[in-house]
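step 4 of 6: structure.
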Amino acid sequence: MTTLNTSAPWHPATSTRPVQWRRLGAVSWRQYRLSAAGAAVFLGVLATYLLIVGLRIRSGYASLGSCHLMASGVPRTCQIALMLFGGYHVWGETTAALLLAVPMLIGAFAGAPILARELETGTFRFAWTQGAGRTRLALARLALPAVTVTAATAAFSQLFGWFYYPFFAFPADSAFAPQYFELTGIAFAAWTLAAFAIGALAGVLIRKVVPAIAAAMAAWAGLLLVTILYLRPHYQAPLTIRGQNVPGASPWLIHQWWTGPNGQTITSEAKITQLLSHPERGYAQWTTYQPETRYWHFQFIESGWLLVFSLLLLAATIWLVRRRAA
Amino acid sequence: MNVIETSGLSKRYRSTWALHDFSVAVPAGQVTALVGPNGAGKTTLLNLTVGLTAPTAGTVTVLGGKPAGSPDALDGIAFVAQDAPLYKNLPVADMLQLTSNLNRRFDRGYARERLSELGIPLNRKAGKLSGGQQAQLALTLALARRPRLLVLDEPLANLDPLARHDFMAAVLLAAGGGMSVMLSSHVLAELERVADYLILISGGRAQMAGEVDGMLARHRVLTGPAAEADLIAQLLPVVHARRAEAQAHLLVRTSGAGEPVPPGWEAHPVGLEELVLAYLREPGAAALPGPARVRKSEPTEVSR
């Protein structure tokens, strides 16, 4: 015979306070701690790699010592050190190219499954009918991972900055160059948050985990491409100079072209090749560029609009959860 | 107080109406059975009740006028969806913790005690439990919330007969404490013994709604010579006619047991299953509260 008190009458809660955020945070953490651990391991392995390789790059950089890039009279020890450092440079460039995909991977894999899995497996019928209500729950489930992936990748990009610093310092590469801009500063974290937000929205729209992740990665890559090609060069009007000797340490060259005596643009490759060896009167070369001093300005502009964009996507996601008809 | 009240409730999915102009009022403190064939709109109605679906037209309120799906309403309703969706990779204990965190009230002691009585281990993952155990776990999580209204969508569909019995026993025990229950099924036999109130849904419309006892009292079966059946059908509101070679069985609506029986005919009380089947066979017939909604329908003949 059962002794359970199954027939206890319903009693109204004494307060009308909704379920506390702390408890919804605990739910959110319980649900994504596995993927958080996955992301932590992934970033940890990459960080260890950067640390080990970074230390070797540092020692290679140190052994360059007082070697200077001179046309002649470079001592033999310097030649060896320079060659080694050149090898590291290729290594570093390859690493940087691969790291470009990190925000996409972390963001999409963290963001897309949050709602897609609930919708795909049908557990939303359980989760969205609990006393907390679906809006607050969705908010908690999105906010906590969004903040942690952003913070983790912000820290990671500082490590990358340390790893790559010798190549920036050497002046071989510019942190302002399109292939490094989103790996340094605060842009890396902003791009991760954007991937997360795209993933979350794709999850609620597509309602299946794997297609949502794939769609989020494709959309993110497209956004990055459009940004590099069309948006970023125009955050601020580029400077134009005559010739190709751009002032400053490592500017970002946007465009170079030649004009003829009447101001017309020269399109003929043969003519340009000829002009390069034999300058003619009336012909001029022009260069537009973004000076490196604008690096942080551009970082804030890009991270700023990415943040607003991400928050809009997350708001749209919550709105869809609210109004979604099952 | 009505635990569920709908008015002109309609839901359209693309071009088909899953629910059309559906108006019922379910009184509190009852076990209500929502019965209808597959695709009749049962799940749609329950989803509207718990706010998982938004209506195309009309309104639905719960627990005495609260908008369905509002946090206030969800606080007092526990819903177990079809196939009892649970987080399959979470251990049972974590499901308890999670549900506790998602609600203002959660009687963890009750939940643990009930699970141990059912022999459901707390460290087992929910997905590794048997179908019956998963259903019981989902029910336990729902009951531990101490809801005023428990909504169950096809709770018995995937259970073996023993598990069905245990499940219904638990629901009835809980209902004894004053909780209202609404459960759907396409198999009436499962609910016949337990339901106080019945809603028959067919083709997205409420075909019959009311207290089971009253419904049975307002119908009876007349058995008599088949030759006279048409004559009787013109005099009395026949819901459904079943004819054998010599005899006809007419299910008729009646105002009470005292109503006279035509000479040569015998009257029998009707069973719930027989009554429901008769209405389901006659989609045009309806027995809804309110005089305006009861109409005479021409019986169609079903020869046997």
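step 5 of 6: annotate
 - Chain B has a mean pLDDT of 87.
 - The first strand of chain B starts at residue 2 and ends at 13.
step 6 of 6: archive
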